[in-house]
Design goal:
The protein has helices at 43-46, 51-70, 82-86, 90-101, 110-121, 162-169, 177-194, 197-202, 211-220, 228-231, 238-249, 253-256, 270-283, 296-304, and strands spanning 2-8, 12-20, 27-36, 75-80, 105-107, 128-137, 142-149, 151-158, 205-209, 235-237, 288-292. It has 308 residues and is of the alpha/beta class. The chain has two domains: 2-110 and 297-304, 2-Layer Sandwich (Nucleotidyltransferase, domain 5); 125-292, Nucleotidyltransferase, domain 5, CATH 3.30.420.150. A six-stranded mixed sheet has the order 8-7-6-9-11-10, sandwiched between helices. Strands 3-2-1-4-5 form a five-stranded mixed sheet, sandwiched between helices. A hairpin with a 6-residue loop joins strand 2 (12-20) and strand 3. Helix 6 (162-169) crosses helix 13 (270-283) and helix 9 (211-220) packs across helix 13 (270-283).
């Protein structure tokens, strides 16, 4: 079954066109695209999606719609996450996506987002034999999903993401020590509030998905150009994340744009991303995580095909 999934996130807008086998859940990618569109810019402070950000997303969607049509997809799904959930005009934005782009747009609850993320992260890998947490750091939120085999159990969406935390705490370039400390303390507080001690204690392994984790793996390997085959499955140590944080936080945004392995559009938020990733690993008592290219896009594709 040929499907298309669009993830309209707080920081980026992404597309997956794939053939999915409903019998065994195998996925063959035909197209995968990503554009940093910063839909969540200003939502934390102002409460609404800005017209400028909305138009950036629609320019990306116009390109994606052409690719979807070229591949003659049988079904499509557009998942809308934290920024749209939180914005006063989020439902109006979703309606416009449906009507103007012909996409089956759904504003996911935090729980729905977590379930699709876990389903996607487990795609193409052996079932989790021990309690495993999937960590998904987005622009407006960070999801934690704990599961066994291929089934999610505990899941929570926390209001801490790279755009939200950058706008809240980082106001100088490069950031000051005080700004970094405030961001880390705020992140720690949010995670402490939302992650029960019993769930932290039972976790034995971690998988990290989305742009912060994949960027960390690419920067560590100095991948230029980006190579998904070398990022997927890469084992990222907590000590490595902390070293990357120290290195990137000491740079100006312009200097970060030239870092091998980092997409220039992620330069404004990658410092917050590294803090979020390190604090997430510390919260779950993980010395390392496996980086995965399979995330909510894969989860949406499997769900469209009736798998999971």
């Amino acid at each position: 079954m040929r499907v298309a999934v669009v993830d309209i996130g707080t920081n980026s807008t992404r597309l997956l066109v794939a053939d999915v086998d409903p019998q065994n859940g195998s996925i063959v990618e035909l197209e995968r695209r990503s554009q940093v569109t910063r839909l969540g810019q200003g939502v934390d402070a102002g409460g609404s999606l800005s017209q400028e950000a909305v138009e950036r997303v629609f320019r990306a969607l116009a390109d994606y719609r052409q690719l979807i049509d070229q591949h003659d997809c049988e079904a499509n799904l557009a998942v809308l996450t934290s920024a749209v959930r939180d914005a006063a005009n989020g439902q109006a934005f979703a309606t416009r996506v449906r009507e103007e782009m012909g996409l089956d747009a759904k504003v996911l609850t935090g729980d729905e987002e977590a379930q699709l993320t876990f389903l996607g992260a487990m795609a193409g890998r052996p079932p989790a034999a021990k309690p495993t947490v999937v960590i998904d750091i987005g622009g407006g939120s960070t999801e934690f999903v704990v599961g066994l085999d291929r089934s999610a159990g505990f899941h929570v969406s926390t209001p801490a993401g790279v755009v939200r935390m950058s706008e809240r705490h980082i106001h100088t370039d490069p950031p000051t020590t005080e700004e970094l400390q405030a961001l880390a303390e705020d992140t720690r507080r949010v995670f402490d509030e939302h992650l029960p001690e019993e769930e932290r204690e039972r976790v034995r392994a971690g998988v990290a998905v989305a742009g912060t984790a994949t960027s960390a793996a690419a920067i560590e390997q100095e991948l230029e150009p980006y190579d998904p085959s070398r990022v997927h499955g890469y084992v990222l140590q907590l000590a490595t994340v902390e070293l990357l944080l120290a290195r990137l936080a000491d740079m100006t945004e312009e200097e970060r744009r030239a870092v091998a392995g980092l997409h220039p559009d992620r330069a404004p938020t990658i410092v917050a991303g590294m803090i979020l990733l390190s604090e997430a690993m510390i919260a779950m008592d993980l010395e390392q995580v496996e980086v995965s290219e399979h995330d909510i896009l894969y989860g949406g594709a499997l769900r469209l095909a009736g798998v999971g």
